[in-house]
Amino acid sequence: MTQGEQPIFSTRAHVFQIDPNTKKNWVPTSKHAVTVSYFYDSTRNVYRIISLDGSKAIINSTITPNMTFTKTSQKFGQWADSRANTVYGLGFSSENHLVKFAEKFAEFKEAARLAKEKSQEKMELTSTPSQESAMGDLQSPLTPESINGTDDERVTPDATQNSEPRAETNAVPFPHSSTITKHWEAELAALKGNNAKLTAALLESTANVKQWKQQLAAYQEEAERLHKRVTELECVSSQSAGIKTQKTELNQTIEELEATLRAKEEELERLKEEVENANQLQSQQESITQKLQETETKNQELETQLVELEQRMESSQVEQEAFRKSLRSLLELLDGKIFELTELRDSLAKLIEGS
């Protein structure tokens, strides 16, 4: 970019170029979406499309009136650049971006056409006076005033239009004037010599003009190459500020991520401690569960023993009841026997008393 060249519209897209071998397949020139910008050079009055991938210019296309931007799909468009001998393709993220880019292309194409017409009119206006002055400079040496040089040797303007016939007609009225005849012969020889010199000078000027044109074309190619190089360098320098800003933003993002990472690490340590505590609690719970199971087993054993004791108690109660019954019967029998013995004693006593 030159000092007079400024970006007037920018967008982002994936850049492609047509395969130079097949002329059918698209070859991507950028790995990701890059910035594609329209630039206007006020000094040269031209519009260009420029895109950089890092420090490499992947698009450097000057818009001309015969270019056409074609939308081949909802998000893809292309145009041919005869100067670069290639076809550029752009893939956009949305149809809106494609439509906006196409509108700007048509707008700047029309502006380039008007600028070209104005420049042609200016060239025609400036070239017409210069051509007239150049023709006058070439014709002026052929006039009698420039050839003769003195007032005594000058002839009338009529004589300059056709020197040889005039010399012959002047020789008729003065057949005996050899001096005038020699004078006109000398004039004619001088005119022929000057004409030959002018012809040689014209041929030399033509050759010089061709050489100058070739040198001018070489200078223009070199200037265009240097202009492209300057454009690339200026694009790189213009993007350096953006890169610095992106670097600052990335550093801030990295710091934020590091702070988040530290917080996550602290949280992870806390979670590890909680997991360890949970493992300990789980171990305690397992031991308590095992003890509870052992207690339940013992409880079941005790319950079994209790049932057995109850059964034994019931059986012992039955046995005690039977023993009590037998004891009662025994007591009753004993009472009867005692009563009988008492009666026997009484009867014995009476017998003794009676004897």
Structure description:
It holds the Pfam family WH1. One of its GO terms (molecular function) is G protein-coupled glutamate receptor binding. Keywords: Coiled coil, Cytoplasm, Synapse. This is WH1 domain-containing protein. By secondary structure, the chain is α+β, with helices and mostly antiparallel strands. The chain contains five helices and eight strands, in the order ββββββββααααα. About 14% of the residues have low confidence.
Number of strands: 8
Taking all residues together, what is the mean pLDDT? 78
Tell me what portion of residues adopts beta-strand conformation: 15-25%
Largest sheet: 8 strands, antiparallel
Gap between N and C termini: 175 Å
Q: SSE order in H/E notation?
A: EEEEEEEEHHHHH
The number of helical segments is 5
Using the CA coordinates, give the radius of gyration.
64 Å
Outline the low-pLDDT stretches.
129-176
Q: Based on Cα principal axes, name the global outline.
A: rod-shaped
In helices, the fraction of residues equals 55-70%
GO molecular function: G protein-coupled glutamate receptor binding
Main location: cytoplasm
GO cellular component, one term: postsynaptic density
Subcellular location: Cytoplasm; Postsynaptic density
Keywords:
single chain, 355 residues, alpha+beta, eight-stranded antiparallel sheet, 5 helices, 8 strands, 68% helix, synapse, G protein-coupled glutamate receptor binding, Homer, WH1/EVH1_dom, PH-like_dom_sf
Write the layout of secondary structure elements.
Blueprint: E1 5-18, E2 26-28, E3 34-41, E4 46-53, E5 56-62, E6 70-71, E7 76-81, E8 86-91, H1 95-139, H2 144-148, H3 157-161, H4 163-171, H5 178-354
Antiparallel strand pairs: 1-2, 1-3, 1-8, 3-4, 4-5, 6-7, 7-8
